[in-house]
Design goal:
alpha/beta, Rossmann fold, Glutathione S-transferase Yfyf (Class Pi), Chain A, domain 2, 2 domains, six-stranded antiparallel beta sheet, six-stranded mixed beta sheet, binds adenosine-5'-diphosphate, binds magnesium ion
Length: 375
């Protein structure tokens, strides 16, 4: 898939701007706070109907304006053109159309316009909180499997209902026990499905990540990830019975806390380099390299699973990578499909850096295109 153009209206610091993109490489320059991340946010939002920065879409409306809109022209791998228009007002919320047809259920779009992103603002995968890693996993798996989105949505409803019971009757244990029983069954059913799906996916992902990482990192560094579930299991048949046992064992604590604490909504992923946990011992450079390797692995897996090439968004590529890694990583990514790379390099540095690589360069200044040229 390729995004050939985007038009922004009252989105963040853009009043009205049109970008015509290169089908492979787009380099976004600009000093701090000029609109680089805002542009990538808009592209991401078009693909997934949600921002990577906020769940409060009203924040994306340009100050003192009443709506925000983003329109994008996509060309799928099979040549089909898809025009997506996203329109947001505080009153009516999000409205999305594809080729002028209103999309009623936004989750149906997810996976049709695949995207991968590496951004310090999207999710701090290797150093952030478990919730960041779950978000990453949920978004990736939602792009790969419609069944996953549906089960995840149902699971989240179950958690909400179950928590409501745990909360409401916190002083009436027997009432909780009687009311919660059917919800326990739903929780175990859907939760086990999600855990098994994630576990099986992460095994494939682990192999891919190790290969990609070995190509772009320094020699002798081997990455590994493991799925850290609140339910212990050896193989997938164990998940359901073990879920049930653990839930029983933790019921007393759940009632005390008024919260569901067992299940995939509390799971995590651990990353290791040479068997040392990255979060605890990794250097900044190692983190950044792993983040890029994760993104490239996602890119490859999405193609394998859904046969549509994702677009690639990289915010602030060069912050924190040391020079020996930069060239390797860059030359790898620049040939991968359509990419959008933002950097705070200045114009001359960027020309020197991207020399001999055909690309379209945009330099932003205060929400406007200040320089727009092919290099
Ligand atoms: N809703 C909004 N309306 C107008 N300006 C905004 C809005 N949201 C963010 N901004 C502005 O956008 C700028 C940040 O843009 P961003 O794309 O994050 O910068 P960078 O180029 O460093 O990535 C800031 O100046 C911020 O004030
Ligand atoms: Mg930024």
């Amino acid at each position: 898939m390729i995004l050939s153009s985007v038009e922004l209206n009252n989105f963040r610091n853009y009043e009205r701007e049109i970008f015509e993109f290169d089908s492979s490489r787009n380099v976004i320059l600009g000093k701090n706070a000029q609109g680089k991340s805002n542009l990538l946010e808009a592209i991401y939002l078009l693909c997934l109907t949600r921002s990577f920065r906020t769940r409060k879409e009203r924040e994306t409306i340009k100050f003192n304006k009443t709506f925000a809109s983003i329109a994008g022209k996509f060309v799928l791998d099979n040549g089909q053109e898809k025009n997506i228009v996203y329109y947001f007002t505080p009153d009516k919320g999000k409205q999305v159309s594809v080729n002028r047809k209103r999309v009623e259920k936004l989750s149906e779009i997810i996976g049709n316009f695949p995207v991968v992103i590496s951004s310090p603002e999207a999710y701090n995968l290797t150093s952030g909180a478990p919730a960041d890693r779950r978000k990453f996993l949920d978004i990736l798996l939602s792009q790969i499997s419609n069944q996953y989105i549906l089960n995840l949505q149902e699971y989240n409803k179950i958690i909400k209902q179950r928590n409501a019971i745990l909360n409401k009757y916190s002083h009436n244990r027997s009432k909780i026990i009687s009311l919660i029983q059917p919800w326990d069954e739903y929780l175990i059913e859907k939760g086990s499905w999600l855990i098994r799906f994630r576990d099986s996916f992460l095994k494939t992902f682990n192999v891919k990540l190790r290969d990609v990482h070995s190509m772009i990192s320094v020699p002798d560094e081997t990455i590994k990830l493991t799925y850290q579930s609140t339910v212990d299991f050896e193989n997938s048949d164990d998940v359901k019975p073990n879920f049930r046992k653990k839930l029983e064992a933790m019921k007393k604590i759940e009632i005390e806390q008024g919260n569901t604490i067992i299940g995939p909504h509390r799971d995590d992923i651990l990353f290791f380099i040479n068997d040392k946990e990255l979060r605890k011992y990794g250097s900044r450079g190692q983190h950044k390299t792993v983040l890029i390797a994760i993104m490239i692995s996602e890119f490859q897996l999405i193609i394998e699973k859904i046969h549509e090439t994702p677009i690639i968004l990289i915010d602030d590529l060069f912050s924190e990578i040391d020079h020996t890694r930069e060239d390797k990583i860059l030359s790898y990514i620049l040939d991968l499909g359509q990419n959008f790379i933002s950097t705070t390099l200045d114009y001359h540095e960027a020309l020197a850096f991207f020399n001999k690589k055909r690309a379209h360069l945009f330099e932003l200044n205060n929400g406007m295109i200040f320089r727009n040229e092919k290099i």
